[in-house]
Give the backbone structure.
Amino acid sequence: LIFSSGSAAISAAIISQVSQGDHIVCIKNPYSWTKVVLVDFLARFGVETSFVEGDLESIKSATKTNTKLIMLESPNSVTFELQNLKAVSTFAKSKKIVTAIDNSYCSPYFQNPADFGIDIILHSATKYINGHSDVVVGVCCSSNAIIQQIFQCEYMTLGAIISPHDAAMVIRGLRTLPIRMDHIQKNTMKIIKYLSDHPKVERVIFPWAINFPQYELAREQMRGAGGLFSILLKADAVQDVERFFGKLNRFLLAVSWGGYESLALPFCVFLDQEEKKQIPWNLIRFSIGLEDPEWLIEDLEQAFNHL
């Protein structure tokens, strides 16, 4: 099913699986609008959610007799923690619990959670699937039975449908998805190598970086990691991050990602938001696009020189 936004697809899928008095297990720090539908919306109607670390034992410990859904996001889109999809799926099936995943980070080109037994796969297709930063769209994939259930109730009732024009634009994006994803991945690996060796970078956070804590799991579950990663800048104060960021000329400031252009987002801009205070103030998230990586590295280097 194709929705008018990723948050609409996620919300409809979650709502379709629960009733009053049910319980959901969700990974800690999901996409912000996933958290809103769980905490601010469903809680009003007697649905409880437990937020846990993504390891299997934490998920098992949080499960109750009334748990109906396990909500995953692997990797997430800021610090990129993974869940072991096969292990979680096997456990959930033994308890007759539905599993759902936000698969936006990888796109269907780099990861197929259905291969590991996940029941519902969700995408913010605004990102890589469309790929041109000009359409907002969401995707929900599942079995015929679950899709029919969502179509007949949440999809038709809430009416979050994609317009014909936007549908045509996304078809355009799909035609180049493999080419774009391969090129973005190639560009990103060059930039990751440059940043990993840079004296002004404290740490690179990227699932396919050799020092990533879940590197082996990432290689097992994902065919690639796309262009989204974060760095921790070696900085003494927020002003240092602002100075570095202010000198970047070839990255756009944006909260989105997955398009043809390269973007950057310093998380110090969220310091006044309680729910984001657990994210380090010196974290900057980058989304690499289709530009020449040497051109982007040149821009990064001149910005580092201002620190």
Observations:
- The first strand starts at residue 2 and ends at 3.
